[in-house]
Structure formats: C-alpha cells, structure tokens
Amino acid sequence: MIDVGLFQFACTCNVGASWFCRALQMAGLGVHFRQHVYGPFPDNTVSKLRVTMVRHPCSWLSLTYAMLHNNEAECNHLGPFASSPLGSLDEFVVHYLRHHGGAVGEVYGHYRAGCCQRTEDQPWALEELLRSLGVKRAFTDRVLTMNITGLREPAIGWDRSTWHRKVIEAERELCEQYEYW
C-alpha cells in the first residue's frame, strides 16, 4: 500500500500497478513503485480515500499464468493461484474452474477500497479521479498522454470461445460488480 497524500493505493499484481505509479508521477504526486502497492490496506480505520484497480478476470488469469509460469511473481497475495499447476494456460484455467471458481474475486477482495478503477477504463478514470481531488488540469492532462499499450489485452494466447463464458460464470459476482462481460 502506498500513501499518495490525497489517497491510499493498493492492488494485486497484473492490474496495471506499474502504469498507475508512473501516472501518479506524471501528475506530480511523487515517485512510487509497484512493489509497494501489492500489500493490502492495513486493517486500521483511515479517513483517507482508498483506491484500488481490477482487470477483467480472463485477462487477469492469462497474465497471472504467464507471471507464475515465468517465475516472475511479484506479490504474495495470490491465494490458490500461487500453487496452481502451470503446464499450459488451458490446464491452468481448467484447474481454476474445477477447484477455485470465484477466486479472482477473492484475490481482489484483499484490496477493498472506496474507489475501484478498472484497468480497461484508463487513463480517463484516473484523470477524472485526480481532477475530482483537486489536482490541477495541467498535471492531469499528462496522464491522458501516457502510453496505455501494456494495459490492454495480454499477448498470451487466450481461447475466448472456450473459456470466456465459463470464467464469467465462475466470477459472476465480480463481473456483475464491475460490469465485465
């Protein structure tokens, strides 16, 4: 968790933390590192706004598989995914569907916040948040010019026709809450 001054920010990996930290710097809110955002918010009550991010569960599963498969895990709040079999992406998803349906929502649940930003809504969602908190337009406009390529669909192969509907069903509560379809 990082304290930006105007708000606190924490999220799980593979939702755009690196981009978010660079955007905060571009907006004049200091230098922050993604490794620090992976720790959930402390339990104590804080009067500051808490902000987190989520990503479509299909994209998150693809990126998490690639991260674990390449032994590049940067956070330790992955629940059952930390010990999932890593043969192929299909095997990873089948295991998830059979044994851990709903677990993406549980991972995101470690980061409950008053403001949740969808990765897919960047950079506009962050620019709107910063402006609502009083950050000057000259700084928030910088966020809108940032490269968002890394925030889009993961490059790793995903057979949408096979798994998309099943993952949506397994993560129904998460998908309804954040309007993912």
Description of the structure:
There is one protein chain. Helix content is 44%, strand content 8%. The protein has 181 residues and is of the alpha/beta class. The protein has a four-stranded mixed β-sheet with strand order 1-2-3-4, with no helix packed on it. Helix 6 runs antiparallel to helix 7 (137-144). The protein is globular. It starts with a strand and ends with a helix.
Strand content: 5-15%
Largest sheet: 4 strands, mixed
The gyration radius over C-alpha positions equals: 16 Å
Q: How far is the N terminus from the C terminus?
A: 29 Å
> What would you call the structural class?
alpha/beta
Give the topology string: H per helix, E per strand. Answer: EEHHEHHHEHHHH
- How much helical structure, as a percent, in the residues? 40-55%
State the assembly state of the protein chains. Answer: single chain
> What is the count of β-strands?
4
Which regions are unreliable across 5 or more consecutive residues at pLDDT < 50?
none
The number of helical elements comes to 9
User: Please, what is the average pLDDT?
Assistant: 89
The coarse overall form would be: globular
Itemize the secondary structure elements and their pairings.
Layout: E1 2-3, E2 7-9, H1 17-26, H2 34-37, E3 49-54, H3 57-69, H4 89-99, H5 103-109, E4 115-118, H6 124-132, H7 137-144, H8 160-170, H9 172-178
Parallel strand pairs: 2-3, 3-4
Antiparallel strand pairs: 1-2
Could you provide a short overview of the structure?
This protein has nine helices and four strands. By secondary structure, it is α/β, with parallel strands linked by helices.
